[in-house]
């Protein structure tokens, strides 16, 4: 799957180094995966959820949340936000 954009992962990992390895692992797994639908994605990431048309991944034992728009037909994943758990709970990302 083509992940757009890795820069958000790098920026978040630089700010929160304790999530760096978990984000890198998530990236490597999805980059080399072909996923046709949400059910197949859940087989790889059981904690993934769909929220308001976006997919939310728990990263690093729930230390961070990665919010993405996934287009299965084109195999593209657009990273919308990467937030700490407390930032995610404020729900401000839903208004953007």
Fold and architecture overview:
There is one protein chain. The chain contains four helices and five strands. It has a single domain, classed as YaeB-like fold (2-Layer Sandwich), CATH 3.30.2310. By secondary structure, it is of the alpha+beta class. The protein has a five-stranded mixed β-sheet.
Q: Which features characterize this protein?
A:
96 residues, alpha+beta, YaeB-like fold, five-stranded mixed beta sheet, 4 helices, 30% strand, globular
H/E element order = EHHHEEEEH
Number of strands: 5
Q: What is the CATH domain class?
A: Alpha Beta
The CATH homologous superfamily name equals RelE-like
- Low-pLDDT runs: none
For this entry, what is the oligomeric state of its chains?
single chain
Share of residues in strands: 25-35%
Quickly count the helices. 4
Give the arrangement of secondary structure elements.
Layout (H helix, E strand, L loop, with lengths): L1 E3 L1 H10 L4 H12 L6 H7 L4 E3 L2 E6 L4 E8 L4 E9 H5 L7
Parallel strand pairs: 1-5
Antiparallel strand pairs: 2-3, 3-4, 4-5
Report a brief summary of the structure:
With 96 residues, the chain is an alpha+beta fold. Helices cover 35% and strands 30% of the residues.
């Amino acid at each position: 799957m083509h992940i757009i954009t890795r820069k958000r992962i790098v920026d978040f990992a630089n700010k929160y180094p304790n999530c760096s390895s978990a984000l890198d692992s998530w990236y490597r797994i999805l980059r080399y995966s072909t996923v046709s639908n949400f059910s197949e994605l859940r087989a790889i990431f059981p904690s993934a959820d769909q929220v308001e048309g976006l997919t939310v991944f728990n990263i690093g034992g729930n230390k961070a949340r990665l919010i993405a728009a996934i287009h299965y037909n084109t195999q593209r994943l657009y990273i919308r936000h990467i937030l700490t758990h407390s930032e995610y709970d404020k729900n401000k990302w839903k208004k953007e």
